[in-house]
Amino acid sequence: MNILFICSRNKWRSLTAEHLFKESTLHNVRSAGTAASARIKVSEKLIEWADLIFVMEKRHRDQLRERSPILISNKDLVVLNIPDEYQYMDEELIEIIISSVAPYISFE
User: InterPro entries per the record (predicted)?
Assistant: First the structure.
């Protein structure tokens, strides 16, 4: 399964999630951001690639729906409700990400 994590700038939350799960033998994982200043900007190509998309906040989901409504309409998209309060690989952020995605997927 191809999994895409999205936050605003792809520097802290979504990048942390990508790095947590990038060694999985069960899934392919990437991350991106919605902001113009994002390290890697979310693109139609990334959305097409993804089977499952996790966004950190509702506003990220809303931005995807505005930009690519047709592509998003047939994707599994989950809002994790993780606020932009954490630094890259923050221990609390790691715990929140793991517990938030656990109901949806398993990782090795």
Answer: Ptyr_pPase_sf (IPR036196), UCP029416_PTP (IPR016919)
